């Protein structure tokens, strides 16, 4: 039996409101010889029933049931079950644009030394309104003025450490590279995707496209909103790369990202002086327009807090 050209893995927990759109976006791809593996992680919203019904007319859909594993372990389980040499990641509440997958599969076929590829993506809110593109927000230097198509990163570890811009739902990776890296670190409280991309980048080639191919849903209460966990994870991840040979500014920019998250957590907690201090420290390490604007806003909030004794938002 011929292996599929790509295995799409989807961890899902209480996402039945979004999962049909995710599956439909896979069906809209110009790729037919694929398999889709969904891990229902103990959902209580009818996900299992919907998946059983969907599977009846989709022989390429493989369903696995678990409970309380979390996305990292769910993805690792699906990676082990995948039958293709390539694994594409898609979260249950994200959707791909038509034509997203085929160019990545073709690029990997032409570049067997590439461990993974990723693209730009768009953040949307629960109403479907655009919150802007990831590359537009983070402004990664490697994406400036590039032509269409995929491009190999010259120093992928430094590039992705300095700018965490590889969205999980845009990534296609070699199965063997994922297994060699031991998959996602299930012990990390957050940012396990960034950690894996960095480990892959340290041992193999990485390519990107500046094309926006995916909508990433920002949901209130989602994992990315848990800033305290993200701070702990980022500190662990940065310590793992502190003594590696990197581009001169890579670690400095990475620490600026950490300081920005610390500033957000401090502001949410009402610690306006700390928030301002973190913003100024981030600006020193990465003196760009966005950090300057954030530092100015933090200074204004701190001034309002001192005058009123209340958190100024």
Helix/strand order, N-terminal first: EHEHEHEEHEEHEHEHHEHHHH
Please state roughly what percent of the residues sit in beta strands, choosing from under 5%, 5-15%, 15-25%, 25-35%, 35-45% or over 45%. Answer: 15-25%
Query: What is the terminal-to-terminal distance?
Result: 59 Å
Spans of at least 5 consecutive residues whose pLDDT stays below 50 are 309-313
- Coarse structural class: alpha/beta
Number of beta strands: 10
Determine Rg (CA atoms, Å).
Answer: 20 Å
The global form is globular
Specify the helix fraction band: 40-55%
Structure annotation, total helices: 12
Mean pLDDT across residues: 93
Question: Main β-sheet, in a few words?
Answer: 10 strands, mixed
Description:
With 313 residues, this protein is an alpha/beta fold. It has helices spanning 19-27, 47-55, 71-81, 101-110, 134-138, 156-162, 175-180, 192-201, 227-241, 250-268, 272-285, 289-308, and strands spanning 6-12, 34-41, 61-66, 86-89, 95-96, 114-124, 130-133, 150-152, 172-174, 205-217. A hairpin with a 5-residue loop joins strand 6 (114-124) and strand 7 (130-133). The protein is globular, with a radius of gyration of 20 Å. The model is unreliable at 309-313 (pLDDT under 50).
């Amino acid at each position: 039996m011929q292996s599929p050209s790509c295995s799409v893995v989807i961890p899902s927990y209480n996402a039945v409101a979004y999962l049909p759109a995710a599956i439909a976006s896979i069906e809209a791809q110009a790729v037919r010889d694929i398999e889709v593996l969904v891990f229902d992680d103990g959902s209580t919203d009818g996900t299992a029933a919907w998946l059983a019904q969907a599977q009846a007319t989709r022989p390429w859909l493989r369903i696995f049931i678990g409970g309380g594993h979390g996305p990292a372990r769910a993805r690792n389980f699906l990676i082990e079950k995948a039958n293709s040499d390539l694994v594409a990641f898609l979260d249950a509440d994200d959707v791909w644009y038509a034509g997203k997958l085929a160019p990545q599969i073709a690029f990997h076929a032409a570049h067997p030394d590439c461990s993974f590829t990723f693209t730009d993506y768009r953040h949307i809110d629960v109403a479907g309104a655009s919150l802007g593109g990831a590359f537009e927000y983070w402004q990664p230097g490697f994406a400036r003025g590039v032509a269409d198509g995929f491009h190999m990163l010259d120093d992928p570890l430094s590039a992705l450490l300095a700018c965490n811009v590889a969205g999980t739902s845009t990534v296609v990776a070699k199965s063997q590279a994922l297994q060699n890296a031991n998959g996602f670190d299930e012990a990390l409280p957050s940012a396990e995707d960034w950690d894996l991309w960095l480990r892959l980048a340290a041992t193999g080639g990485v390519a990107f496209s500046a094309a926006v191919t995916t909508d990433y849903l920002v949901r209130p209460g989602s994992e990315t909103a848990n800033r305290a966990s993200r701070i702990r994870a980022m500190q662990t991840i940065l310590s793992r790369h502190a003594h590696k040979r990197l581009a001169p500014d890579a670690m400095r920019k990475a620490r600026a990202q950490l300081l920005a998250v610390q500033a957000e957590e401090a502001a949410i907690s009402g610690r306006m002086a700390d928030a301002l201090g973190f913003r100024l420290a981030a600006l020193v390490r990465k003196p760009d327009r966005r950090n300057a604007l954030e530092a100015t806003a933090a200074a204004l909030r701190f001034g309002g807090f001192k005058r009123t004794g209340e958190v100024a938002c």
